[in-house]
Amino acid sequence: MIRQKLAVLVTQALASARNAGVLCSELFPDVVIGTPAQEAHGDFACNIALQLAKPERKSPRQVAESVLLHLQDTDGLIRRAEIAGPGFINFFIAPSAWQQCLPLIEQAGPAYGTTDSGAGRKAQVEFVSANPTGPLHIGHGRGAAIGDVLCRLLAATGWQVTREFYYNDAGAQISNLALSVQARCLGIETDDPRWPADGYQGEYIKEVATAYLAGETVVAGDQQVTASGDPDDLDAIRRFAVAALRREQDQDLQAFDVRFDHYFLESSLYSDGKVEAAVQQMIANGHTYEQEGALWLRTTDFGDDKDRVMRKTDGGYTYFVPDVAYHLDKWQRGFLRVVNEQGADHHSTITRVRAGLQALNAGIPKGWPEYVLHQMVTVMRGGEEVKISKRAGSYVTLRDLIDEVGRDATRFFFVMRRPDSQLVFDIDLAKQQSLDNPVYYIQYAHARICSIFENATEKGAVLPSIEPDAATLALLTSPEELRLIRLLGSLPGVVDEAARDFEPHKIAYYLTELAGQFHSYYNKTKVVTEEQTLTTARLYLLARIRQVLQNALALLGVSAPERM
RNA sequence: GGGCGGUUAGCUCAGCUGGAUAGAGUGUUGGCCUCCGAAGCCAAAGGUCGUUGGUUCGAAUCCAAUACCGCCCGCCA
Fold this sequence. Notes:
Layout: H1 2-19, E1 33-34, E2 44-46, H2 48-56, H3 60-69, E3 78-84, E4 88-93, H4 95-99, H5 101-108, E5 122-126, H6 138-156, E6 160-167, H7 172-185, H8 203-213, E7 217-220, E8 223-226, H9 234-255, E9 262-265, H10 266-271, H11 274-284, E10 288-291, E11 294-297, E12 308-311, H12 320-332, E13 337-343, H13 348-359, E14 370-374, E15 377-381, E16 384-386, H14 398-405, H15 407-415, E17 423-426, H16 427-431, H17 438-458, H18 470-473, H19 479-489, H20 491-500, H21 505-524, H22 532-556
Parallel strand pairs: 5-6, 5-13, 6-9, 13-14, 15-17
Antiparallel strand pairs: 1-2, 2-4, 3-4, 7-8, 10-11, 11-12, 15-16
Helix pairs in contact: 1-3, 2-3, 6-15, 6-20, 7-8, 7-9, 11-12, 12-13, 14-15, 17-21, 17-22, 19-21, 19-22, 20-21, 21-22
The protein binds one RNA strand through helix 2, strand 12, helix 13, helix 17 and helix 20.
């Protein structure tokens, strides 16, 4: 809030200096107020003089002096402003300006940190979208955590968000699933020559087969499927297996506190004729050709390195065709912004889907939809990498992870790195309830504040139930206190940036920083003292820290326990 | 061969779209509880930002090469 005010003041000073004939540029670059790395350089710094030196044909320091001369600090925001180094303008903010931030944070309540950048426009995030051919593994877990936090971040920045899960229930992998379950029903082992070529070998296939033979009923989503128990009825096996695995995935996601507004079935694109319609449109627009018995899309017209087959010689469509139809449907549903969160191993689909959408000539922007790709996850246990082999069925499932290390730690670990970077998930570290573990470090700060409030109540301290007056707030003067307020005040900017850049880890880093500053402050400063007013002021600061910890943890879907 | 991502302290990673003396956690070493939660705090040591050029007042950041690592490059999804 103070940062924006400063930007306005400097912008006004530039205009004023130009009017006075001191500066001559017609257009000024946007004023950027930065945070100096060192406290000696003030609370904020501005490099505008360095940028203007050349066009103004003056030295940076001369420009800076002109800016300062025309700066009108009517609100008494600035205690001191100075020109430093090559020409930076360093601002030292008045303590009273910092103190006045606290009531504003309180008034915003749980909404503190949110912005209205999205202005209520419609956005959609598609994530997880796992094939219903097995349990969710650790890679899906990262996608689930990142996607979920992206949704929370977009919602916090004013977007109306729809969370969607795309179900690939129509492809060859589903056939393989059905064949695998059927083989298990017939007692065929994986080393048997009759075992299906691309069959799923995991133990869970056996369980599905057993349930099928026993005639069990599963409820998944809005449908209910009862097994016929007939091992020859491949279609019945397929329906049952898909439902059974979907139920498993739903339960895992529920345990992970990840929910969806909409499940979209790939099969519906075929039954509703949307795939065929999209294909016809691409043909009509002249972007396709027949060759060697297949139908091709000229994706090279849209930046691909070679053309891609749309309709195979066997008459079936390749996987990206329904994907194009699906995204056309998203566009028609009015989502200005669509984000697809996927594993980086699917990155080659981006060009194809975007090319297909352009070939439709439907007025869809070139860069639509947007993609967030996360890199691979390596699991470490006991200092060794846990090898993952999906086909052999030996891999760490999301459920295993949640059961072993807990939901909070799992979520936090998945989003504490940039999606771009490969993630080493150290199970031993995530399990530790100690200082090594950043989740506990942050949650501990919250619990500690709650504990201090209990203590204060017992001692009969005056709790800041109403907004303290200026004289009380004026007692918050130590460097640690002002630094904490500055950090509290930066939350909205951090949230906006994390949402804009699709970088959930920025929230994790913010929380670590805030918890650290609080622990340090606590260690140095007695909160509950003999002086009543001072105690009230400090408790008020602590209440705001607690509030911001809660708000930021909520963005990650991590709990803020009162006791640990 | 082509595409995408990565390369920063012993290890795991940040680095605010080009700013001042490159940061945090962990690990190592040494300190701090008669006191609100020591699951905590403080201090020290630790770096040619993969390499080489270029752009400019200024580069970990932008550009061009190049070297490694991961993932893709199917009429699988």
